[in-house]
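Here is one such protein, fold included:

. . .
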Amino acid sequence: MDSLALGVCVVALALATSTTTCYAAPNTARGSVRIHDVPHPTSPYKAAVIEYDPEYEYDKVVTVDYAKRLMQRNLERIGELVVKAATDGAQVVVLPEDGLYGFLNCKREEIRPYLFGIPSPGEAAAGDPCSNVTAPTLLSNLSCLAKKNSIVLVADVGELVPCDTRTDSECPEDNAYQYNTALAFNETGAVIAKYRKFHLFYEKQFNQAEMIPVSFTTSFGVKFGLMVCFDVMFSHPLLDLIEGQGITDLVLSSWWVNTPPSFSATQWYQAISRRFNITVLAAGGLQRPAWKFSGSGIFSRGAPLASFYNTGTATSAHLLYSGSASYEQQVGGIAAPHHAGDLLRADPTSCKDGPSPPLECPEGSTNFHSFVAAPGSQGTLTSTCGEFSCTAYYSVSSEAARGPPVAYALFVFAGWYQGFYQEQNCMFYKCYAYNDCLTETMETDTVFEHVRLEGNYDDAYDMFVLAAGHDGDVLPKGAVALEGKSSYIANHDSPLLNLALLGLKYNRTGTH
């Protein structure tokens, strides 16, 4: 893959003042870092999340030695950003899911060379892998990265657990369990938490782990819940951590698949943060096309302290600043040419057995309506999917930009999302073109005086509100409100890309 130059701006904030320092990283780095002060009821802390584009192999079985070298190259590059974040005062740094080898090793034999054994917290081998000459190389190097920089480091790796089909009836035919595993290292390099991903998203290369919620407490007094990507769409382990273990802060390594404009990683992280009144530190993996996978940030009780979504096709980030109260968000970026072949390489369906099941509604449903958002216009739309219905009340600002017709749509769905979970979803969003409401778009200059969504959601569904403006930027905390089974835009005079009211059927007793 290309060698990229990286320009990063790291924001270091004090409670009363903020300062921004920019630097040019070596051309081996390929990602962006965001660092931010995070409020906490008893122990405010400084955090950083890193969005990263790893070097990887696709649809290919490599040797173990080759896999080690590839992962080490990625770790050296991402390590430059970790060192910079630590130098600027970060106490906890989060790395993305699959960030050391990429996410498209879809077959068990393809991912196997990248996997290694990992000790559990409390075992002697977990105490200081950095100084343990028998520790797996990557584990030792991650431990050293945390230890030498005196930080809490959260990283996602592949874990190998040998088994014997002769004595273990659940042992896979290749005599090993393969897990997508998140690790937390403390400032001394010790492994203090290990979580195996439970909810796999078309990851046939990994085994589903047991549902074991994991949290850890840091030296600076904050208790974090530890999860991986798709886990955050389900009631468990999320509710186990929030309601059972009392966590108020969540660290998440992720490699999201966005479906803009109505659903993107940053919108969902903010929605979780808002709904449960928690802080979410989310680091995303990145590859071309960037808009399909990008999304990282730090969200505190619904407020976007730092948020980044690359809406381009190439793995390029933008240097941008915006403020909210005493907080300043920042992003650093990379730039590289886009190659058409990368679109096919990054197609997430390549890890599926076939196309995703369509989002269909019962006969007689009218689950889609569109309208022209002319300046000063207002109206009401109702869409239905079986017995579920949702109504949008809207009023376009009379000061909205005038020009070619701009269309918005109201789409609803109720049922199983690709067989994973049950949802009731009401989505109000800008169309790509006047006659095209299916193609993804992140651009808008249309301002609404108000938009309100109301639906007859089942009481068994937990409610979440997602919203974004131009370029998919999440909205300030006060711009969106959730009241029971309705949501609305308030105190917001900037263009609106979408507003969605999503109900998820949470199982509060099982494992989903």
